[in-house]
Please model this.
Amino acid sequence: MARISAGVATSHVPAVGAAIDLGKTQDDYWKPLFQGYEYSKQWISENPPDVVFLVYNDHANAFSMDLIPTFAIGCAETFKPADEGWGPRKVPDVSGHPELASHITQSVIQDDFDLTVVNKMDVDHGLTVPLSLMFGQPQSWPCKVIPFAVNVVLYPVPSGLRCYLLGKAIRKAVDSFDRDLNVQIWGTGGMSHQLQGPRAGLINKAFDQSFLDQLIEQPQQLAEMPHLDYIRHGGSEGIELVMWLIMRGALDQNVQVKHRFYHVPASNTAVGHLILEH
Amino acid sequence: MARISAGVATSHVPAVGAAIDLGKTQDDYWKPLFQGYEYSKQWISENPPDVVFLVYNDHANAFSMDLIPTFAIGCAETFKPADEGWGPRKVPDVSGHPELASHITQSVIQDDFDLTVVNKMDVDHGLTVPLSLMFGQPQSWPCKVIPFAVNVVLYPVPSGLRCYLLGKAIRKAVDSFDRDLNVQIWGTGGMSHQLQGPRAGLINKAFDQSFLDQLIEQPQQLAEMPHLDYIRHGGSEGIELVMWLIMRGALDQNVQVKHRFYHVPASNTAVGHLILEH
Amino acid sequence: MSIDKPYEGIAGTTIFDHDMARQGYHLNQFCMSLMKSDNRERFKADQKAYLDQWSLTEDQKQAVLARDYNQLISLGGNIYFLAKIFSTDGLSFQYAASTMTGMSEQEYKTMMLNGGRQSEYPFPDEKGV
Amino acid sequence: MSIDKPYEGIAGTTIFDHDMARQGYHLNQFCMSLMKSDNRERFKADQKAYLDQWSLTEDQKQAVLARDYNQLISLGGNIYFLAKIFSTDGLSFQYAASTMTGMSEQEYKTMMLNGGRQSEYPFPDEKGV
Ligand SMILES: [Fe+3]
Ligand SMILES: [Fe+3]
Model:
């Protein structure tokens, strides 16, 4: 049977993608950040997934104001890097896992999650930057990826608890897939940041560290934090962190922290990163 | 405050739309069917809604296999009749109610329904045929319409219970909208029919009548009927009936049956129709 | 996969689930293309050439050319998508449905006028349900 | 409407809810059009003429021309959509953010290098929360 072997959380800052693409990872500004991912690259080369279930959000690239799904699952064979306005990132196309993706879709819809099925979608930095951080710059990505896009742009976004319970439903679905697959689930976005208005540049280390602590130890309690607290304490774009709860919901109650990293700043953002096994 | 004053259930057979558009409603074949809607036209002229929340499904017109939302709510100002392959029906454009639609969206997403917001969508016979049946052939539709599209094409579709509970969430949302609006909720599609395979042409009057009885008297119990029973007893396309449960969920437990009508056949389909007040 | 498919026991009925949808993806998207009148004209002018622009299997192409709707459904077609083909042909849903039942259009029409295909409730002859 | 908006109490912050989205619909869709390089060229060649093809309010057009991002946000713009404008200008997210804070780009950069805008936890100075 398929099984979820690990969870990864990471920010997906577009400037980080640009730093990789432009060969700036050893610049003074970027070096400390990329050092925090050295362990991760080693770890993933020793624990290579067959499939990554990659929870991220689209940033007005695949979805305009014409259609905004709360939860969209990519069931296609292939997803191309989106042109976000200055040409697509020069990273490999993403290969999906249509069979597992549709198995999960069928299972979680029957568990009352109202997914939107997507068979044609370009994937933006929200999805490709985490792949670059974990896998570097290969000719092709070393595993299949199921893109799972969450609306965190148009308020209201799904609640933390909704996301956490969705994670549990995804776990149940993966566990019942009758092929031997090593699946990782990644939750991306965050941590504290605000990209707009006079409060732009907000960073809240105490909030972020507390979020990391609770995500590890008390995810259910954390899941009950209302949106308002994300926005107040983590900034208007800090609401992206609800996506980490989908990842966490798919893991056991008790997890082993293989890696924990936190860094400020990456452009406007605090960067957080966890590798959890169970 | 806004309030839901009544629920309407009706089949939305495309051939019925064609009969209206081609002036055949008095033909021998169609006359008994349209007679069943005479009361309804009278009733709605005496109980004119400000807004109809119209639950229907798209039939591979607005949504292709590229993107299939489980639940999509139309928040736009205007929706055009879809060209389903032989030119759009010559019926008026549909005017939405963006404020109420987005109020409902915000409310039900916070009640853990994972809607897809749609601001650009053509509406097919699933939506326009019920309008024609109830309002005839006016120059413009006499009320606003919020299109609510449910996936009933790609299995699995949402469960009856999910639909019923969504109806309750919609009710709560409408009740909390602070403008004085008379809102009707319509559930469309069904009744028993099968459009494909050697079993095409299936009609099950006993199933249909029992569905009507239970929808009126025991909706919660009916909501627990599994998909399989719809398909076995009501035909593969009879699964559309789950949409009637959204309508029913938005009404009180006790309803008054203003009108009940049943007719076979309309093309390949049994036609059912209810007007419920509470 | 180990998702339950209880509906597989229903005779004469194919449920359009994700496995069917994957198999029929290009077939159904070809059908969608017929919503544009330009494409309908091009299809009618040279069906085979038009079909060759789509990633259909040979079986799917043959079934389109033969208007074999049962076969198209077994190859992943969904009836609402396939409707674009018989609409392009100017044929009715009722006619198309009749071709799947082994009846003539007239026999099928008569059956419908007489109340449709009778099904007992509950359906007695299902296997395994 | 009577949907609660508890987030309205957060200083310096506009939440992109449905009311804002309705107000900014055409503005944001104009921004999306800048994802195509043809459109970027046409916009750069004659900004006013390009803007006139969209159903923006006069205020929205003026704010685009002035690159007044705070004003654009108050008129329904969302930052991820507005990003298409400063990307077209070849400017960074960090620069654009700085213009909204009343700081120079350098001041803003320095603030970020020093750990960002400091916020206490819990935030002490909210009104009404
Ligand atoms: Fe993001
Ligand atoms: Fe229908």
